[in-house]
Design brief:
Helix content is 84%, strand content 0%. The chain has 4 helices and no strands. InterPro entries: 23S_rRNA-intervening_sequence, 23S_rRNA_IVS_sf.
């Protein structure tokens, strides 16, 4: 039973972590230069960054293992898209060098955690399907 509590604790901590990520993305996009390209990239980034949190929360309320895995996959896709927009903003030099490094690192870490969680969920589904 301690493992279940541990999983619950991790899920809650991760939920708070991705919420904080979404807030950081919101604040970043509000500080981007007012240019057509930054407006477009910022709008896509804020949508994707906030969607990571929303879809993870939806996964936590899933009614089945399949629904859980599907919602995790959507959150993973949105995290990957967030990484893309952060990389583009960084490489375009829209902010001082190094300003996006920490947020980009956090986006990559979130993506790695979601990828591992989705893989584990899909393995559980396969095991349940193969069980007698």
């Amino acid at each position: 039973m301690p493992n279940t509590q541990s999983n619950f604790d991790f899920a809650e901590e991760f939920r708070q972590r991705i919420k904080a990520f979404a807030l950081r993305v919101m604040k970043l996009t509000d500080r981007l230069p007012v240019t057509p390209s930054c407006r477009a990239a910022g709008a896509q980034l804020v949508r994707a960054g906030m969607s990571v949190a929303a879809n993870y929360r939806a996964a936590c309320r899933a009614r089945s293992q399949r629904e859980f895995a599907a919602k995790l996959h959507i959150a993973l896709e949105e995290a990957d898209e967030s990484v893309l927009w952060l990389e583009l903003l960084n490489e375009a030099g829209t902010l001082p060098v190094g300003k996006l490094d920490e947020l980009l690192s956090e986006a990559n870490a979130i993506m790695a955690i979601l990828g591992k969680a989705e893989k584990t969920a899909r393995e559980r589904i396969r095991r349940e399907k193969d069980a007698p």
